[in-house]
Specification:
This protein is an alpha/beta fold. It has two domains: 2-114 and 275-302, Quinone Oxidoreductase, Chain A, domain 1 (Alpha-Beta Complex), CATH 3.90.180.10; 127-250, Rossmann fold. Helix content is 21%, strand content 28%. It has six helices and 15 strands. It has helices at 120-140, 157-168, 182-187, 216-223, 257-268, 285-289; strands spanning 2-5, 17-20, 30-39, 67-75, 87-91, 103-107, 111-113, 148-151, 172-177, 192-195, 207-212, 226-234, 247-250, 276-281, 298-302. The strands form three sheets. Strands 3, 4, 5, 6, 7, 14 and 15 form a seven-stranded mixed beta sheet that branches. Strands 10-9-8-11-12-13 form a six-stranded parallel beta sheet, with helices on both faces. Strand 11 (207-212), helix 4 and strand 12 form a beta-alpha-beta unit. It is globular, with a radius of gyration of 19 Å. 45% of the residues are buried. It binds NADP nicotinamide-adenine-dinucleotide phosphate. Keywords: NADP. Residues 12-301 form the Enoyl reductase (ER) domain. GO terms for molecular function: oxidoreductase activity. InterPro entries: ADH-like_C (IPR013149), ADH-like_N (IPR013154), ER (IPR020843), GroES-like_sf (IPR011032), NAD(P)-bd_dom_sf (IPR036291), Zinc-ADH_QOR/CCCR (IPR051603).
């Protein structure tokens, strides 16, 4: 099968190569999925899971990209819950070969059925932002109706999903980003927008939750904007930022079929939009990922166009 592999962490995306590999086999409780659409999460080439297995042993060449929509072709020994020919979407294990390939072996428990009226491109585009936003807002952020949330990078891939889900949950949403992002963030449903280059972040009202995708100094400054007992949730790794009498949580998104069902249902009902910036084929994916053209929104690789 065709697959994209990486072998050397120091080369980053420039080291991606399109190659031929054997088709994966379905292990116990796995399925093999023929990948129709695939996505990669921004930071995953810097995560250890791309390079070593859980015991710390080199696992290169590894196939990156852990977001997928496709069709089940094989069931492993003892696998239940899914059937051959079923349309699915989901997030694959960070420590296994990923989805920038024609086929991937994945635990059935990581996948949800993809409804017939949702195309593979939209399905793949929902996975990482949908799960990350849901887990950040609700599992880790404990966001409640009537609360106020500050969503950084509100026009971006994760941020735009967080804005929509938070607004729908009845929260007041303050989005941030660059000056040029104002209309996009408001279009996704932010009530208010703070341009981080020109506005003073410290002028906003106190918030119950900060959903951070930027880290660094912005995360630190945001901690002081949180009401007593509130939370700072970040997806950018460990931070010293601490709200007074509150908590800071940094997390990596996990597979969760029930949450995929929630977000895809919202998409079907027109209550949620994907944020797709570009599509490409597997043959052109390496060039697309290394292009100097700045893409706003998710890049989806149409593995089987
Ligand atoms: N831990 C996890 O599980 C997890 C999951 C998903 C994503 N992530 C990480 O979360 C981060 C965001 O991911 P994403 O896919 O949402 O990326 P993205 O689409 O690029 O979103 C980031 C947004 O923030 C804006 N931005 C960046 N720096 C800014 C600054 N200094 N001031 C104002 N706006 C700024 C970006 O604008 P420009 O495009 O103009 O720069 C973009 O609109 C990445 O680091 C990604 O790897 C982590």
């Amino acid at each position: 099968m065709k697959a994209i592999v990486v072998t050397d962490q120091s080369t980053g995306k420039a080291g991606m190569k399109l190659t031929e590999l054997p088709r994966p086999q379905a292990a116990i409780n796995d399925v093999v999925v023929q990948v129709y659409a695939s996505g990669i999460t921004g930071d995953e080439l810097s995560w250890p899971s791309t390079w070593v297995d859980r015991a710390g042993h080199d696992r290169t060449p590894s196939i990156p990209g852990h977001e997928l929509a496709g069709v089940v072709t094989d069931l492993g020994y003892g696998t239940t819950g899914l059937s051959v020919g079923q349309r699915v979407f989901g997030l694959t294990d960070w420590y296994r070969n990923g989805t920038l390939a024609e086929y991937v072996a994945v635990e059935a428990r990581n996948l949800a059925p993809l409804p017939d009226d949702v195309d593979f491109t939209a399905g793949a585009a929902l996975v990482m932002p949908g799960l990350t936003a849901w887990q950040g807002l609700f599992d880790h952020g404990h966001l409640q109706e009537g609360q106020t949330v500050l969503v950084h990078g509100a026009a971006g891939i994760v941020g735009s999903m967080a804005v929509q889900l938070a607004r729908e949950a009845g929260a007041r949403v303050i989005g941030t980003g660059r000056a040029a992002h104002r209309q996009t963030a408001l279009g996704f449903g932010a009530h208010e927008f703070v341009d981080l280059d020109n506005d003073n972040l410290e002028n906003i009202e106190k918030v119950d939750l900060v959903f951070d995708v930027l880290g660094g100094d912005i995360a630190k400054r945001s901690a002081s904007l949180i009401r007593s007992g509130g939370r700072l949730v970040t997806v950018t790794g460990p931070t010293d930022a601490r709200p007074a009498n509150g908590s800071t949580i940094d997390f990596v998104v996990e597979a969760n079929p029930a949450q995929l069902n929630e977000v895809v249902q919202r998409l079907q009902e027109g209550r949620l939009r994907t944020n797709i910036g570009a599509t490409s084929t597997l043959d052109d994916a390496v060039a697309t990922f290394n292009s100097t053209n700045r893409v706003t929104g998710k890049t989806i690789i149409l593995v089987r166009p």
